[in-house]
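Deviations from the work plan: none for this task. Representative record:
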Amino acid sequence: MRFFVITRFLVVASFLLGMTSEGKVHAINMESTRFIIESANTSSAAGDKSSSGYKLSDTIGQLAAGQFSSSGYVVKAGFQYLHSVIPFRFSISDINIDLGSLLPNTPSTAYTVLTVAFGSAGQYQVTTIEESPLKTLSGNAIVDTSCNGGTETCTESTAKLWDSASAYGFGYNMAGNDIPADFTSSSHFRPFPDRLLAEAPAVIMSSSNVSTSRQATLTFKANISPIQPAGSYQTVVSFVATPSY
Amino acid sequence: MKLKNIIFAILLLTIPYSLATSHSFAQQVSLSISPPLLEVFIKPGKSIMVAYSLENSGDPTIIEAEVVSFEPKDNLGQISLKSTLEGPVRFYLDNADLQLNQSFFLKTGEKQQLLLRIRVPDGAPEGDYYYSLLAKTVPPPTLEGVASSRAKATIASNILITVTESGIVEVKPKIAIFEILSRFKLNLFGKVVKIFDSFDKVPLMLIVENKGNNLIKPEGKISLRGNFGETSTHEIIPKNILAQSQRLIEARLPSPAGEANGGQATPSASINDGNSSLIFNGFFVGLYNLSTNITFGENSPTIFASSSFFAFPFKLLFGFIIVVTLTIYVIKKFSRNDD
């Protein structure tokens, strides 16, 4: 044991003394008549691989499969590394989210639960976008929230604090698995991206990890000003669950 | 007596109504689709039919099937759907009673087979074309008199199509990043040395770039070798890297037998922790070398990269120095007091 400790110490010490000769982070370029092994951009050897000394031609043919030539196609279903076809499931606990009768300066909330089940297949994402702002048939709209405003101004991609009764609008909060990190509390909200404004859908659940059943709660919130016209305010919020490739 | 009769009559008339009032139940959507991924290698002029299974485990709903194009969004395998169908490939439903972009009703617990016909016209340019088969629910009717948001659910299954006349695909890989993610780096005479405490976790990032026009699948290993010859080898998960894109490569857990001083593969856990391919755990002392060898199937090029790090029990050493210093200080103080 003592010998082992001393040996380790000597190795470490000799390394420290000879650190300048350490060169194992170099990438290696190799080539033969059949193939070229290309250098990697490691931390100490990044850069263009071209050189006057050789021609880089790494386009190598690869047969798709044996049966391709006979049938003209090859089809593979499911994730090949899993050796089984796992269905991709997406659930929304409530698709009719009732915010009730809105009263001025009195925030109203309602929630729905999103669930993604994917066996052990792994990567997925759920995005959301509103088809239009919350609005009446006559066109009166509740604007998308900016949260508390000032330093607490939220955007479609950044949640901020929204707890002021005099901050008006429509937005959402997320809690649960695989949600964006900016939803740090139940008072942090974002506005929905608006399809009418050609905004990109926002990713609200995403995982690159293996997952069986992932669940997140999305809380809708609306708060109106005293001058908001009365009416039946409606919108459609679209949720899209996509697996990886 | 008369008043009693009136009250009784009112109750008799109102109670049944109150009992008969319909309750507002949450309307649930739960859809599953299989297979979630389809890879097709096909010659121009050929046509295939693939059976998809769409199941509704929620409330009865109206669904519409559609195919749109997608493109890779990031290097984590996520996609960005396009609003339209691009490319030469044509899609139809072979079901007698169903068509794409036309709604159909699906009861609770019902399964619907979607017979998707994929046709590549003659003369279609060789290359990769990426699509998603979408099953979209139709939003429920509006709630009158209240503010409400109606949700529309869409579930996708990805279709990767490689159109090739000969069956030969283009394999042009490159290791874009093979880097040990360390907090401390020492720049010595132009060489960067990654430094870890012996108890630290050692994260590794491996990103492979596909510069070709066809998707590729990496196969290979990531190996950790210590200064005493101890090794830990991890098999790369062969996930698709789409044409002209990059992907973070992950590795499987180490095989239990025969590996010493094992690193533990921990694929990234969430949207905010998706930047490491492997995280090595253990007690590291000295210089360690990490390397990877990746191939892309038969007759494909092999790419290689390596990097190294140095680990030392700094925290333990500092703790030891503090304890010794304090001990000497206390002993000296007590010895002075004794004098």
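Helices of chain B lie at 2-20, 314-338.
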